[in-house]
Protein 1
Amino acid sequence: MERLIPGKYSPAHMGPAYVSPAYCVFRVPVGKIRANAYNPNAVPPPEMQLLVRSILEDGYTMPLVCYYLAGEDCFEIVDGFHRYMAMVLTPEIAQREGNCLPVTVIDKPLTSRMASTIRHNRARGVHSIDLMTTIVAQLVEAGLGDDWIMKNIGMDRDELLRLKQLSGLAALFKDREFSPAWESDSEAP
């Protein structure tokens, strides 16, 4: 099997218009990276140990996906929190990697970053229902409609409705029409 030679396969060979963030990976000091407040993904301890073992054996094979916060000169994680934590919690990894992590950067507004985090995680993790409910509430409060939420975070209408109901916030239903409430017949005995 022919080994890929760096530079042989460049973005110029991949197509004319769009270059995915994965073609531009930065080496970022771990101290300039921080978690986001909206990651509903949880990794059980055995799987986290397996991730640490994988990184010890194979190195980092997938970069973190981050958003650059220019005003704070730091990178906020969109995807890759547990790869980040593997370094933070494992001195052997941190030392070997020179306390740096591979990072790709996306430039999207907060609501789109939240949707990206969920898309990256839904197929491979366990989600906190409470945090998913909070995220849905934040997206609705940001003015995003049900269709946008369903499309961008891979949710069907019933799941979205259940999360809205769990929130208990009437404001999440402000744009829905409901049938009139049942009223008792005052004439009945």
Protein 2
Amino acid sequence: MKKVKSVMWVILCIVLFLAVFAGSVISKAKNIFGGELFTAFALQGEAASDKLSDGDLTKKLVDINYIREDGTIDDSRQIIVYRPTDRTGDLPLVYIPHYAADETTADFVSYIRHGWAVAAPYDFKTEYNGILETDDLVFNNAALYELRHMDGIDKQRIAIVGGSAGGYMCMMLNGLQMGTTAAIANSPIVNAYFNFHEYFPACDEVNRESGMFDFRMPIQGMVSKYFQPVNDLIPADDVDRWEAVSAISMAKAYSNPVVITHNTSDILVPKDQLTHQYTYDDNDGTLPDGFNAKLPSDYPGILSSTFEELADPDELTVNHIDISKDYTLAGDLPYADTLLTLDIIDDGPTTAKGSHNNPKQTGSLDNFPYLEEQMDRTLAGTEKAVPQKLLLLLERYAGKSLALPAHTGVDDSVYGSLAVYQQEIVDELSVWAGNHSAEELSRAMEEAIDSAGDEADREAWKEIQKKL
């Protein structure tokens, strides 16, 4: 009987501890996110004062089949496509990757009100965070491929807008593909090795060393577990794979305008992986001394390099938006004529009290003027034949991509197969040639191969030319 009572007492203590911890985390999460945890992570903008009614838009579910990393076919996932009911014909499209779309945000409402279509994954599950760089990456590429071949979508006006893990997906989609008119990536993870394999475990260690009822980083602690499977899927010493699934490896390959926004206080996705500029030396005192979320300089390969260091300096503009005095963010999204614009929002040092931004921050930037201008320019006016992108496409055509492994002998009609990848690349290059000329494409491709390619690239290009 005494043993039973002892066991029951231990169980009761554990239950009480978990209840108190959960209550603390949820309470702090609500203070930061207003109760919408993963909606806030998606960074899709503030709530709209203008509400959409059921009659303002139509919704269509589309099945997306793709080949998983293990060679099996996943036919369980869908995307949802929204269209304003008062518009017909081919519409501009905004694709929101990884997360489900929040239909109540001002950005979403603005897209629909202006006659654009919106698409996003349907029925988001937290388990998808754990396959972010593997199967979820393939799924989102497959979704974009489907959208580009869908009736009712203007193929010359497709934008991608994502935040946090969705920002990661935005950067990867734009790095791996051609055919996007413009993009916005908010707080994107551009160095997966740093963010998931090193930084998240370091944050978990801070929590383990905290007091029983005073977890220093409760929000980060709750988030990190969902991404932990990433570390189990990619070995720590597989440097080539970590580089391939990180946007830093494609910093010179972006061929369309991309605006990246990032707050200096971000505790979930440290800004320092983008640029060392405007990074604070220490935190705001809410974390252990020296915890500054800086990118270490001793990682292998390019994993210790920032995105800025690896990008083409002639195609990168860095803007500093200082709101550290009143924490009020307002105005239009700043952007430059370069392919890449990095908007650093200075809201103070890293803080355990925040998430992607300081909790004192109010307001947001209006991204519509930027997207509207790029949509007006269309793909013909925004996309360049960047040498590194062309070489990346040739690598994918040959089935050598580590980010998007090509499958043979499974089903050549399903996305993820080498056959579909090759058709996708032929389609993308055909569109570029149609917007410019076959002669310009041939000249750009030959120059890229001569400068950094090899004979395998040249053979792939010869094969592609026969299909164009």
